[in-house]
Amino acid sequence: RIFYWIANHVRYLGVDGEKYRPGLEPHDITYTFETRGGVCRDKSALLTAMFRIAGVESDVILISSGSRLNVEAPVLGFNHAITVSYDEKGEPEYIFDPTNENTKDFLPKDEEDNSYLIASKKGDTLRITPVSPPSKNNSTLNIKLKLDEKGFAAGKIEFLFFGFADTVFRGYFARLSPYEVENSISRIINILHPNARLIDFNCTDPHDKEKDLKILANVKIENYVSLTNNMIFIPFDAANLKMHLLYNYIMSPFN
Question: Where is the Transglutaminase-like domain (predicted)?
Answer without folding.
Answer: 1-60
